Amino acid sequence: MFLSNPELGRKEAYVPGLTQEFVAKRYGIPVGEVAKLGSAENPYGPSPKAAEAVKAALGIDNYPDWTARALREKIAQKYGYRADQVICGAGETEIISWIIRAFSGPGGKIAMFVPAFPIYHMTAENEGREPLYIGMTDDLDFDWDAYLAAITPDVRIAFLTNPHSPTGRLVPEARIREVCRKARDQLVVLDEAYIHFSGTEGGIHLVKEFPNLIVLRTFSKVFGLAGLRIGFGIARPEIITPMMHLKPTWNMGNLQVAGAMAALDDDAHVARTVATIGEMRAYVLGELRKLNRFSVVGEPSSNFFLLRIEDSSLSSTTVFEELLKRGVIVKDGSVSFIGLGKSYLRIDVSLKKQMDRLIWALTDISNSV
To answer: Which residue spans of the chain are classified as CATH 3.40.640.10?
Structure first.
């Protein structure tokens, strides 16, 4: 074997949500009737302004600016920072890989609540770092005493996801401050991929207060640009600069930059999406409370929620497969999130048509399986 890193290939790769086309073909369901609720995508699709900007930027014969400077300047202006405090990547996932490589050495500990977004620990493991898992409470709430106690001097990076995935629980700002103070010389990564759906402004303003904080956001969710692959981070220049030297030289293409810049101005698309998700979240959670064999974990503040299977005769994989047969795609917690076990499904909030299909499918499963 020619691999220099023996960890590569030993563990399972990331498990993405299934496609509508796959389920339609497998179960003979019209593709337009399949409810895709496993990838947290925007139900309205891409920002119209972004779509037009991408069409207008189809000159693809020239190299892009290697720093994506125009987009970095636009992001900086929007959030009150300088361009040298912004870095852009092909989604948050690319930036996460730079963070782990730049700010921890081989064997370095990377702290995170579990269950967690898989890319945190998968990237850490593949880079020869050591994930440090902090368990949540029995009700999958944050155990802050355990998390803070885990941030010892040998921890190099501490991840927080807000709202948390897969629970959708919101992290109070006071707790973010507490983690940043405890970490001191360690890097705190605040992943705000879903923050728009929380009804809060998020924690970008905290970068002005804490030199050890980087805040990540994505264009994949509320802006509807998952297929373009765009994410960004905001931090002090001393955090951004090392990653600028580490990142691939031309990682951001002209279409990504054009689409993201236009999306930042599409307040109407963002407002429409957030309003719909809020309305449908309240609707579906209310309907699910009528089912005895399922319950919702906590009070989610995201565009997804975590469904607990209360009937011990059912597993998440069984319910996952039964939902597929009924044209509903969700995430099986047992294969998608480390430490979650076999009693949970992560499910997106979407349009009423999809929510009604989900409610019908779960009711049918409750009555027949």
So the answer is: 48-266
